[in-house]
Design a protein that fits this description.
The chain is of the alpha+beta class. It is 33% helix and 32% strand. α1 crosses α2.
C-alpha cells in the first residue's frame, strides 16, 4: 500500500508499505509520469528476473529505459519502454526473447497497461560471462 498525504504547504508525500517516503508535491523533482515509467520498468524487471531464475537462465545484465508520452492532463497516455537483456553466448537468443515475452504477459503492471505500452527489446550475448563484483 502507498499512502499519499498533501499538507498545508502544498507538499505531497508518498509513503510506501516499507516506510520509505518520497516528495511528490508541486515542487517535487520526481513528476508522477516518471513514477509511472519507473513502476513499469521495475515490475517488468522483477518479473523477468524471477522467471529467468525459475527457468535456470542466468542473466548477466538487465537495463530498461521508460518514458511516458503525455502527462497527467493528457487524454491518453503511451508508455515506451526499451529493455536490454545480457546473457552468455550459451543462452540462445530465442530463449531470451521467449523469456521476455513471458515476462511481459506475466507482469501485473504491463497487463494493466495493455495496448498503452510500447516495448522494444535488445539482446546481447557475451562470449564468456563477465566477472561479478561483490
Amino acid at each position: 500500500m502507498v499512502e499519499l498525504v498533501w499538507d498545508q504547504q502544498q507538499v505531497g508525500t508518498a509513503t510506501t508499505s516499507a516506510g520509505h517516503s518520497l516528495c511528490v508535491g508541486g515542487d517535487s523533482s520526481v513528476p508522477p509520469e516518471d513514477l509511472l515509467a519507473m513502476s513499469v520498468a521495475a515490475c517488468l524487471m522483477r518479473t523477468c528476473l524471477r522467471l529467468a531464475a525459475d527457468q535456470g537462465i542466468e542473466l548477466l545484465g538487465f537495463t530498461a529505459a521508460a518514458h511516458v508520452d503525455g502527462g497527467c492532463d493528457a487524454q491518453a497516455l503511451r508508455i515506451s519502454l526499451a529493455a536490454h537483456l545480457v546473457a552468455s553466448r550459451d543462452v540462445p537468443e530465442s530463449s531470451l526473447r521467449a523469456l521476455w515475452d513471458r515476462a511481459v504477459r506475466a507482469s501485473p503492471v504491463a497487463v494493466v497497461l495493455g495496448a498503452a505500452l510500447d516495448i522494444e527489446l535488445e539482446v546481447t550475448r557475451l562470449a564468456e560471462p563477465s566477472p561479478r563484483t561483490p
